[in-house]
Task: inverse folding
RNA sequence: GGAGAUGUAUCGAAGUGGUCAUAACGGGGCGCACUCGAAAUGCGUUAGCCCUCCGGGGCUCGUGGGUUCGAAUCCCACCAUCUCCGCCA
């Protein structure tokens, strides 16, 4: 969410930004907000004038009552009663206008960073940099489910019976590999100075509506029946939620956190949920990074965050690239964002395994996350990034570390988490 | 899950319908004075948000409603904490 003062003083910047994001249909909102805001402030001033009068008179009534001057007090009462209706009407108008303004402010996109490439949609995202050689071996790479099944590491049919499509049983060494990736990611991030968190996996509706839009909530979140609780779609929800309406001492910054959680997503209308396998599923696990920092540091942290993910994947011998989100594909709250994509030798292309975002002060403004410094309080900047989401990254892991005989090589870094194993062998039947 | 108690600034806490909400009283922090320095002492200071014609004004006593001319105070709902009982990993 933008600062409304920016719309008052520099509406052209806001309009220009909307155009850059190819959301011209939102252009009228700028003038609407400016007009509503003017009306709102007039109503507010009038209402506050009346409230002031009421407070003063009520105090006088109190004094008169204290002195036993009942008649004079009664006369004053009438004065307050007379303006009650006007005040009530103004209050309602005030609230209504405020809501109308907020409704519009929520959909006016955040000002993007000047470095963001201009483009209409995801087809115009820009490859930034490649890390590692994208190798295609001279033998055929099977579909990830087939690799896993050959290793006796996945059971999809029973999962369909117990839970439906979009769930899975991981088994044996593949399940262990999944957990190893997470444990390794946890230690990897701790080594880089991040504080490890295990957050609540369910959050109240008031937090949900704070951290996402209504449409997102409908399409992503599972609700617990009979309770005011939702299963989190990512640990970012609980991690950012804990900062809602808080003021952080400047010397406690930056907050660099890494959180583990299972993630639950309905994936309503999402492409690929029907696909067999673990690419898009209703339940997965993820190690996440969250940073809350001073405004001047956020771009520095943005670079540190995505590089962490790149380093993590490179330490597992998986080639990756970073793909920068163009203006039109950037979510409204984000200033800048890139995906980390892993190489798939089977598809001979890169696919998304993580997403790094700098939200500037937009999320902080919406959630009232502030910093207290020597010169007053100001809004924080917030960032988040995926370290690893194993079910999906296993696809890249298995494809890139597959031997011709179907066994899987375990990179050095992961061996301590796999009981020292250097290879996952194909079981003899 | 049952019973009871509680929620006021940085902390403890007073206020139980008005003329004591920046909020008594006490502690902590910070600044200044005294001191070679420190302790002790004294003085001062120590929320956030919004509007502003920059004079000021409004809102916030866990949160949201209600009653009232007026609510920290009365009523309702929710949230949280503590104690006891039950249950559980």
Result:
């Amino acid at each position: 969410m933008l600062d409304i003062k920016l719309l008052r003083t520099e509406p052209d910047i806001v309009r220009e930004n909307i155009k850059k994001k190819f959301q011209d249909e939102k252009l009228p909102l700028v003038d609407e907000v400016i007009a509503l805001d003017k009306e709102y402030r007039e109503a507010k001033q009038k209402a506050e004038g009346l409230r002031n009068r009421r407070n003063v008179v009520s105090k006088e009534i109190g004094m008169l009552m204290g002195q036993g001057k009942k008649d004079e007090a009664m006369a004053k009462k009438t004065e307050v009663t007379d303006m009650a209706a006007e005040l009530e009407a103004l209050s309602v108008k005030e609230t209504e206008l405020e809501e109308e303004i907020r409704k519009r402010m929520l959909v006016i996109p955040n000002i993007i960073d000047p470095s963001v490439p201009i483009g209409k949609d995801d087809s115009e995202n820009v490859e930034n940099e490649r890390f590692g050689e994208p190798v295609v071996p001279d033998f055929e790479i099977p579909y990830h489910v087939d690799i896993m099944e050959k290793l006796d590491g996945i059971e999809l049919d029973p999962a369909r019976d117990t839970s439906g499509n979009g769930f899975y049983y991981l088994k044996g060494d593949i399940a262990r590999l999944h957990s190893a990736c997470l444990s390794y990611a946890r230690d990897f991030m701790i080594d880089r100075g991040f504080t490890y968190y295990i957050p609540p996996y369910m959050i109240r509706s008031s937090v949900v509506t704070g951290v996402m839009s209504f449409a997102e909530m409908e399409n992503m979140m599972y609700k617990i029946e009979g309770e005011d609780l939702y299963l989190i779609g990512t640990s970012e929800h609980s991690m950012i939620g804990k900062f809602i309406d808080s003021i952080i001492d400047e010397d406690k910054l930056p907050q660099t956190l890494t959180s583990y959680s299972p993630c639950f997503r309905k994936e309503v209308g999402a492409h690929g949920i029907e696909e067999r396998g673990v690419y898009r599923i209703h339940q997965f696990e993820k190690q996440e990074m969250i940073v809350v920092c001073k405004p001047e540091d956020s771009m520095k942290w943005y670079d540190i965050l995505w590089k962490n993910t790149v380093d993590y994947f490179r330490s597992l011998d998986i080639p990756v690239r970073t793909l920068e989100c163009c203006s039109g594909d950037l979510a409204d709250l984000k200033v800048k964002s890139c995906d980390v994509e892993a190489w798939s030798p089977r598809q001979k292309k890169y696919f998304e395994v993580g997403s790094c975002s700098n939200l500037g002060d937009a999320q902080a403004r919406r959630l009232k996350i502030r910093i207290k410094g020597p010169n007053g309080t100001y809004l924080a900047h917030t960032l988040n990034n995926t370290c690893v989401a194993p079910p999906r990254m296993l696809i890249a892991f298995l494809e890139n570390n597959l031997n011709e005989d179907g066994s899987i090589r375990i990179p050095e870094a992961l061996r301590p988490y796999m009981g020292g194993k250097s290879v996952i062998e194909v079981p003899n039947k």
User: Anything to note?
Assistant: Residues 114 and 359 of chain A are 14 Å apart (CA to CA). Chain A has a mean pLDDT of 91. Residues 41, 44-45, 47-49, 51-52, 54-55, 57-67, 73-74, 76-81, 84, 204, 228, 247, 368, 370, 377 of chain A lie near RNA strand B (CB under 10 Å from a C1'). The two ends of chain A are 58 Å apart (CA to CA).
